[in-house]
Specification:
Blueprint: E1 3-6, H1 9-13, E2 22-24, E3 27-29, H2 36-51, H3 53-56, E4 58-62, E5 66-69, E6 72-74, E7 78-82, E8 97-101, H4 108-121, E9 125-129, E10 136-140, E11 143-146, E12 151-153, E13 160-162
Parallel strand pairs: 8-9
Antiparallel strand pairs: 1-3, 2-3, 2-6, 4-7, 5-6, 7-8, 9-10, 10-11, 12-13
Length: 169
Amino acid sequence: MGVGSQISESEYLHTAYQPDCEYADGAIIERNVGTQDHSRLQAALTAYLFNRRKRWDIHVYPEQRVRVGPRRYLIPDLCVVTGERPAEQVLTSPPLIWIEILSPEDRTIRINQKVREVLDFGVPYVWVIDPQTLESELHTMSGGRTLEDGVLRIEGTGIEVPLGLLEED
């Protein structure tokens, strides 16, 4: 993960990066993406959730910039917003679900810091998935737990995402 030179928030917001980068207090932060396992799982999750968007009253956004604080922008691999479609191009309110798909270069301490920051921002559910094994953890303000059956279930909604069955749809 590289950190580049200092730029303004406005410059960050008006620049396209490939892949998109995160931003913290003037620094551009590269994200670990690009492996086939990561890409395939991201596509499968996006399709699964998108195909159920009307039933669950959700909007699905892959790699959506989210302003989590002053001069601080993070990018989930995928996020899910409930209710009305947001009018803003860069989200400033917490989505319902923030999904991080691990890459081989990801380090536990960095992922844990990001999960904590996203939860502190107000995201109720952060789902971290290993694309090679499909092992996953669901994090909430009350703690994290491994999803033993590989199924994400969001209490009080119809949202249910069975990782092992994604590619069968």
